[in-house]
Amino acid sequence: MKRFLKFGTVGVFNTLITLLSFTLFYYIGINYLLAHVMGYALGVLNSFYWNKKWVFKDNRKKSATFYKFIAVNLVTLGIHTLLLYLLVSNAGLQPVLANLLATGASLLINFFLNSKWTFQQQQVG
Questions:
Q1: In angstroms, rounded to a whole number, what is the distance separating the alpha carbons of residues 104 and 95?
Q2: What residue spans define the domains of the chain?
Q3: How many Cα atoms are found within 13 Å in the side-chain-facing hemisphere of 97?
Q4: pTM
């Protein structure tokens, strides 16, 4: 539970970075799907650093963990982007609201995959 709370704390900051940059990119005229991918990339960089150092305390070689982390986030990005597209195209939601809803749905997937695969060998206190 402690690890999930730390993950959630990092997630709040990642979400702020992602959503604020998404909103900025969207309002300056970038397509909402491209704006999402760009904002997500910024959040992922922040996320990797804090999850590796603080949440999972992973001291393994950076490259192996980084590649797993990127793979998990590409899966999450795909799911999130699909949800975003469906919420805008099919449900008629405004892109910023749709992005908020898709973020909530993808959080659990991201935590599960990172905790079970990316950082699973670490003992966390």
A1: 14
A2: 2-118
A3: 7
A4: 0.77
